[in-house]
Amino acid sequence: MLSIAHSPDADDIFMFYALAFGWVNFPKPFTHHALDIESLNQEALKGTHAISAISFGLYPLIKDHYALLQPATSFGQGYGPKLVRLQNKPLKKNFKVALSGQYTTNALLFRLYYPQARVVYKNFLEIEGAVLKGEVDAGVLIHESILDFHPDLIVEKEIWEVWCELSNSELPLPLGGMALRRSIPLTQAIRMQKALNKAIVLALKHQDLLADMLLERSLVRVHKAHLDTYLSMYANENSCALSGEQRAGIDALFALGFKHGLYPELVACQDYLIPDSYENLRFS
């Protein structure tokens, strides 16, 4: 049985559950697993799941074993993860910071921008508390935490601002995507990508119904107003297929990583997408 993994944050849950609820027929039977983003990245390095959500910052390290899917992506556009600290505690150059995982996109950008910071990694749900307790001087909040954090905390820096400075652009900030194991036959991979795309289109068309179903089953961690806001940011019409600007953003991220020695070679995302045209050529 096919193994599909996604994160437990609201946008992944929303985009995936049209499949889980049976609104769309998937080409193969599947089990699904909800894991925090760094666990997903670590499992992708091992090749554990056939299809998995990943951080775009990880992808060049798994490109030989996974292809990139176009649907179910999350980008920041004027927003994204936030570096927060206590209001009365200005940061020194070597401040101690909690990040959500070594291979996350926000961690990649953070380390390039703050090379003197002392980094520790924590589950994303523990970061806010670690800052409030003084275990760390600051933390990068991700997922729904960016919408509603403790009033004693203030935003030191938006990772969106970091991205714009490092990339010298205002291209979409590539945060999370989906990867599919290369051992899956190409025709099946194309059909799986189409099914995932259809699931997202249906989810967006029936957003209120699906949101209510998720809330009633306690599948998301936020209330209705925050869910609507969060979905408008990270699960929207731009999540169905990669635009030219989004591809340019991914390539800019990969170029940054290569320039700073984080990847062994320069990668262009276009070379690692599922070639949809193959199915049309084969059956024409």
From TrEMBL:
Family designation: Belongs to the MqnA/MqnD family. MqnD subfamily.
A single GO molecular function term of this UniProt record: ligase activity
E.C. no: 4.1.99.29
Protein name per its UniProtKB record: 1,4-dihydroxy-6-naphtoate synthase
Keywords: Ligase, Lyase, Menaquinone biosynthesis
Species in which this protein is naturally found: Helicobacter gastrocanis
First-tier enzyme category under EC: lyase
Keyword Transcription included in the entry's annotation: no
UniProt-listed InterPro entries: Menaquinone_biosynth (IPR003773), MqnD (IPR030869)
Keyword Ligase listed: yes
Coiled coil: none
Active-site positions on this chain: 143
Record function comment: Catalyzes the conversion of cyclic dehypoxanthine futalosine (cyclic DHFL) into 1,4-dihydroxy-6-naphthoate, a step in the biosynthesis of menaquinone (MK, vitamin K2).
Known pathway: Quinol/quinone metabolism; menaquinone biosynthesis
Gene3D superfamilies: Periplasmic binding protein-like II (3.40.190.10)
Catalytic activity: cyclic dehypoxanthinylfutalosinate = 1,4-dihydroxy-6-naphthoate + dihydroxyacetone
SUPFAM superfamilies in the record: Periplasmic binding protein-like II
Highest rank taxon of the organism: Bacteria
